[in-house]
Structure formats: C-alpha cells, structure tokens
Amino acid sequence: MTAELLSDSAALAADGSPAARHVAAFRAQGTPALIANAACEVMLLRQGAARLPVTIDDGSRGRSYVSSPHSTYVLYPRDEIGLMGLGGVRYVAEGVLGLIAGLMRASRLSRAVHLDNWLLSTSLHGDWQGEGLAQMRRLLAARYPDHFIAIRSVDAWTCPALLDAVRADGWTLLPARQVWVTDDLERDWRVRSHTKADARMLRRSGLTLERPERIAPSDAARIAELYHQLYVARYSAINPRFTPAFVTMSAETGLLAYSLLRNPAGEVMAFAALRCAGGVGTVPLMGYDTARPQEEALYRIASYCATALALERGLRFHGSAGASQFKRNRGARGIIEYMAVDGRHLSAPRRAALAVLAAGLNRFMVPMLESRGW
Q1: pTM of the entire structure?
Q2: How far apart are CA 259 and CA 303, in angstroms?
Q3: For residue 84, what are the contacts with CB-CB under 8 A and spacing of at least 6?
Q4: Pairing label, strands 280-288, 316-318
Q5: Which has the closest alpha carbon to 133: 144, 125, 122?
Q6: How many CB atoms lie within 10 A of CB 289?
Q7: CB 166, CB 151: distance < 8 Å
Q8: Mean pLDDT (the chain, rounded)
Q9: Rounded Cα gap, residues 41 and 27, in angstroms
Q10: Separation CA 260–CA 272 (nearest Å)
Q11: Would you give the end-to-end CA distance of the chain in angstroms?
Q12: pLDDT per position as a tens digit, 291-327
C-alpha cells in the first residue's frame, strides 16, 4: 500500500479520521496559535488503515520538546538540573549536558521529521504497531532529505510491537526519560492507602467534578492559565505552552477528555485532561491554582480524578515522567522511554554524531535514571 502525505484542507476533511481532524486544526490555525512555543509544520501520513500526524521542524532552538530534540536532550534537562538541587554533582551534570549539546550541534538532530507525533508530552501510538514502517521512512527521507526521521514515546510497555519494528528496521534508539506506568488500576492503584486518601480529599474539598464534552471559552482560558502556572512558570518554559484555542480544539476533536474541578463560586480550581489510545490512558495536561494553600491538595485531587476516569474506561495508565515517589506510592513502576531516530539518508558525519550520542546516552543515562528513580 502506498504511503502519502496530506496537507490540503479538502483532503483532510474528506479523510475525516481523528488524526486528520487534529492535523486540520493545526493547519487551519497555525501551530503557534495552538502551542505558543512550537513552530513545526503538521501534516498527515496515510497508509492503509494508518493515519499518523507528522511534524516537520527546521532545527530552530528554544522551542518545546514536543517537536524539538534539542529541547528534549539539552534545554529541558538543564531546567531540571536547576530545580533538583544536585549540589556539587550539578557541575558534572552540566558538563555532560555540554557534551550532549555539542553532539546535537554536530548531528543537527533538531532538524527532524517526527512520525506519529501528536505534540503532547506522551505520543501514544494507539493501534499502530509499526505496519509499513520502512515504506513510511523512505517516503519521509525522500521528501525531507536533510532531516532526521524520529518517533517519540517508544517503549516496551505501551507499544512493544512498534519497538520491535523500529529495531528490526534498523533505527537508532535514544533513551529519553523514565516514565511511570500502572499495569492494572483496579489491582495496583485503587487499593492503595494514598489513593484512598486522595479520594477523601476530593470528598472534603467542596469541589464539584465536571466532565464536559465541550469547553466554554472562559473555561478554556482558565485551563490554559492553570496549566501555565504549574508546568511553564514553575517547572520549565520548554514545556508546551498550550493556548485556550488548543484546549477548545482538543475537546471538540475528542483528543482529550477533561475533568474540571469547580469551587462553589463556579471557578475552575484544578483540571486534568486524559488522552486515550490503544487501551492506555495518560494525562498530558494538568493544572491547578498554585496560589492556593498546599493543604487543599489540588494536585492530588486532579490526579485522582484523571486516573479514576482511566479506571472507568478499563485502561492501563501511563503516568508520564516526574513526581516519581508520588506515583510509586500509587502503584506505578518505572520504565525507560526512547526516541527512535533514523538518518541513513544523511551524511556520514551526522550519522557518526548520532551514533556517539546514542552510545553515551544508553551507557550512562539509562543506569542513572533507573538507580536514582528520576
């Protein structure tokens, strides 16, 4: 079956798949209107039954990690080092980052086309298990001969068949982060004492839980603000800066299912957005009013509501990265997530820089993540 790239609005509308609707929104509004710190072009790759969003980045720096490998491996870790308070180890970590940055420049890895990239912290690959991968790779390499081809969020838990496919097709695997997953929410999450305490906090909070299918403009603005307070202002400007337009679009297309928590005055105080694909749920957007006292436990409550929705839908749960102890206390375990990269069509120096980067990350980054629980 022939693989093809679609960008025309009429062709996307005629296709009508969830991926086509997602791509159509980005093409109609422009990527920065939906994610303020992303500038990639978004297209749809269609082959057989597969409908996969494709993002094309020209290599600019300072953009969000959802489309920029440089941000994934240099800028975001630099922000994390500043937050973790590593003491004297910080200088060693910064030196290692300097080496990684040098290899990134040599390879020009940020000049990349990402396959099946939904521009979320975790790109769940759903029912696509790597069918037609070699043909897709050849199409993208021919269309973008100066770009690496990449697939984010590849791991042995959410997409083992895709992981096998990229290995069999000769892609390079770069470890990206440790993520926290729950195999059975009924068995591993619901019975935990921390989970039960979270449920009590919700009952005592005075907040009302809503799960609207559409988001009103005032709520969209509030959701974007709460997300920004937590993930951009508190953690890193490299996190995707989702706009109110993205919130509205993601609800309308069914990309995300929102849980809103309102106070008695009707104001949204916290929220969580669940993404579901291939029997797995994850929460790429969450936020709460960070000005409120910590004892109100808004983060715990929002997390509980999102995971409870995943349980209702019979999903396994992907808890993304960070807050490792919080997630372990609620039944999660850590696995390593990779970015699969192919550059066989590129020059020998760029391929060599990628090979050195992969060897170093696999030799040192994976043991460090596993031993420290990051």
Answers
A1: 0.93
A2: 10
A3: none
A4: parallel
A5: 125
A6: 18
A7: yes
A8: 92
A9: 8
A10: 7
A11: 42
A12: 999 999 999 999 999 999 999 999 999 999 988 899 9
